[in-house]
Specification:
By secondary structure, this protein is α/β, with parallel strands linked by helices. Helices cover 38% and strands 9% of the residues. Strands 2-1-3-4-5 form a five-stranded parallel β-sheet. Strand 4, helix 6 and strand 5 form a beta-alpha-beta unit. Helix 5 packs across helix 6. The longest helix is centred in the N-terminal third of the chain and has 23 residues. The chain is globular and about 50 Å long. The N terminus is likely disordered.
Length: 270
């Protein structure tokens, strides 16, 4: 079957448009997912726990288009109990090339009286963390280790004190050995708490305000869990560290120096 000169000319003139369309489709970036495996300091919270908030709730505000957050952090979990309860499995079932797995544990690994959660910094803690690193790597994803955000603790002279013992150092050593990125949130948060001071940090942690009805934990204020300002501040530390450690490009982040209204946080329905 032959074609006319007019048909041939029309087909040739349409070719660049078809090629351009194909190139546009090919160039469209795939949505990547930032998975979070961690404890209550990172976890999404329910309405009944408000105003308590985890930094994972605020992280999406600092990520650009094409990056979603899947927050699997759960209250009370350690690097060990998270795996023993099967919580790493759904992450590894879903994660793929180009995705990130942010891993922050330590607060509950320190609980020596609880064998379901306790890990020893230089042995079992590293062994469990290695499972997160290996699992992500096997699926073409990138694991990122985060030293635990610091608690609110000050001495009589007003100095912010570290509370995590050898766990941050053990994580740093593992990150270097496994050649995975490390976001050193522990000293970064300690520096922030020092700048804010003992009084200034009260607004960042789960301390009751005059006339306020308590939710967590049963009316007792605590120095571990965050209110929205603390969650947003720590999420900002995480986002800046993702940039500084070149895990994400500057163009993949946003609002790093902008104020984020507390009202933008969303609590899950119970």
């Amino acid at each position: 079957m032959s074609i006319s000169r007019r048909q041939a000319t029309a087909a040739l003139s349409a070719l660049p448009l078809a090629v351009a369309a194909a190139r546009t489709a090919t160039a469209a970036p795939r949505t990547r997912t930032v998975y979070i495996a961690g404890d209550s300091t990172a976890a999404d919270k329910y309405v009944s726990a408000a105003p308590e908030a985890g930094w994972g709730m605020a992280l999406p505000f600092f990520l650009g288009k094409g990056l979603d957050v899947a927050n699997h952090a759960v209250n009370g979990r350690s690097s060990k109990s998270f795996i023993d309860e099967g919580r790493l499995t759904p992450i590894l079932d879903a994660i793929g090339p180009g995705d990130l797995l942010l891993v922050q544990f330590g607060h509950n690994d320190e609980k020596t009286a609880d064998p379901t959660r306790y890990t020893e910094p230089w042995t079992t803690y590293q062994e469990y963390l290695r499972q997160y690193v290996k699992g992500a790597r096997q699926r073409g994803a990138r694991s990122v280790l985060l030293t635990s955000v610091e608690r609110r603790r000050f001495d009589a002279a007003g100095n912010a004190l570290p509370t995590h013992g050898d766990y941050p150092a053990a994580m740093r050593a593992l990150a270097a050995k496994e050649r995975v990125p490390l976001l050193d949130i522990q000293p970064a948060s300690l520096k922030l708490w020092q700048r804010l001071g003992a009084e200034g940090t009260l607004a960042y942690f789960n301390w009751l305000r005059p006339g306020e009805s308590p939710n967590y934990p049963e009316g007792v204020s605590d120095n571990t869990h965050f209110r929205p300002p603390g969650a947003i501040a720590v999420a900002r530390l995480v986002a800046r560290a993702l940039r500084d450690e070149r895990v994400l490009a500057p163009g993949e982040l946003r609002r790093l120096d902008e104020e984020i209204p507390e009202s933008r946080l969303i609590w899950q329905q119970d």
